[in-house]
From TrEMBL:
This is Fatty acid desaturase. PANTHER family: DELTA(5) FATTY ACID DESATURASE C-RELATED (PTHR19353:SF19), FATTY ACID DESATURASE 2 (PTHR19353). InterPro entries: FA_desaturase_dom, Fatty_acid_desaturase. It comes from the Bacteria. GO terms for molecular function: oxidoreductase activity, acting on paired donors, with oxidation of a pair of donors resulting in the reduction of molecular oxygen to two molecules of water. Signal peptide: none annotated. It comes from Qipengyuania algicida. Residues 1-20 are annotated as: Disordered.
Length: 363
């Protein structure tokens, strides 16, 4: 089935005269190909996960240490940028942790939390049990989706605000763990507020997190306790070695947060108005930025350059997504629905979303 056939298979918005995302029917041939062509893929390889994560963390922390210890401005900026990019890659393994089977990589979640999640005050509980809601077929793109906002349908000023607010992320995380967690241990109302409003990596301001259950509950306890202790140690260090090291670290994490927010901005087209969508519609509202370009591997690492494909196969390990993409592209061919989710790069996507915010809206 071609892209045009997929769209016209659904109904159209009678007011605008063009198909809406919610009206797009499923391309069964594409869904069947995604299943049949990737049967031999899908096993998470521990050697790849551990090597990639450890190398990213080591490079990131080494560059951060250099930025703190050296005092030449250009070297500080250069090393800070290297640290931000490397730690960004290490941090994005939180996405894989939210999807991989609990028995697939023994010890990886714990190791990642101790090496990356806790030091960056972004432990895995802030994504586990939240991100999977984004993949629920009946929730994606609706008001119950923690990771969706119709950004393309909002005001033009919403886009720079969406990106700029990420600058405050490290300060907000430090405040959460150093102040709100210990206060919450004493005051139940603070604890409830912290959990429902400030314990999820979400972009939907209406999202309220439900209480942790099952295996997640004890993980939350130890991760919050370690996060609180680490936040106190960071603040206490300023009394012994001054504020410069912490401020540089916060600046590096701010760059990482802004880069992640830019990636989030172009992870979808954000064109749904809150209606439930088919799997194919969700796929077309998501973004692939496949090769030959290499820059996308920097701003969308750990498989996230294949974000649309990820929405077709959420449990596929990141290291198998390039091969899955090659097989589907070869089998389905140009002009197919599959190619409708492929885009050339971040600049093109930002421009598309920005243009969409400037279009006049009908009541």
């Amino acid at each position: 089935m071609t892209m045009q056939q997929t769209i016209t298979a659904g109904s159209t918005d009678q007011n605008k005269g063009k198909p809406t995302l919610a009206s797009i029917a499923d391309d069964k041939a594409m869904l069947r190909a995604a299943r049949d062509l990737t049967r031999d893929l899908g096993a998470a390889r521990g050697a790849i996960y551990w090597t990639d994560m450890l190398a990213s963390a080591i490079i990131g922390y080494a560059a951060l240490a250099g930025a703190i210890l050296l005092h030449q401005p250009l070297l500080v900026v250069a090393l800070g940028l290297v640290a931000a990019l490397a730690l960004y890659r290490a941090l994005l393994f939180i996405h894989e942790i939210s999807h991989i089977h609990r028995d697939a990589l023994p010890g990886f979640r714990l190791g990642w939390n101790l090496l990356v999640g806790i030091p960056l005050l972004t432990p895995s509980f802030m994504y586990e049990g939240v991100h999977t809601l984004h993949h629920a077929r009946t929730r994606y793109g609706t008001r119950e989706d923690p990771e969706y906002l119709p950004l393309a349908l909002m005001k033009p000023w919403s886009l720079p605000l969406f990106v700029a607010i990420a600058l405050l992320a490290p300060i907000a995380l430090l405040f959460r763990f150093a102040v709100l967690v210990p206060l919450g241990a004493i005051i139940p109302a603070v604890r409830r507020l912290t959990w429902t409003r400030f314990s999820a990596l979400s972009i939907n301001p209406d999202f309220r997190r439900r209480p942790a259950e099952g295996e997640l509950k004890p993980r939350v306890l130890y991760q919050e306790a370690l996060g609180m202790i680490w936040a106190w140690l960071l603040l206490a260090s300023t009394q012994m070695i001054g504020w410069r090291p912490l401020l540089i670290a916060l600046a590096v994490v701010s760059v990482t947060a802004v880069l992640n927010q830019l990636r989030t901005l172009v992870a979808h087209l954000w064109e749904n108005e809150g209606e439930p969508m088919t799997v194919t519609a969700q796929f077309l509202d998501s973004v692939n930025v496949p090769p030959p370009g290499v820059v996308a591997e920097i701003w969308a690492p750990v498989g996230l350059r294949y974000h649309a494909l990820h929405h077709l196969m959420p449990s596929m390990p990141y290291h198998d997504l390039p091969e899955a993409h090659r097989r589907l592209a070869r089998e389905l061919g140009d002009g197919s629905t599959y190619f409708g989710a492929n885009h050339p790069g971040m600049a093109t996507l930002v421009a598309r979303i920005a243009r969409s915010t400037m279009r006049p809206r009908q009541p």
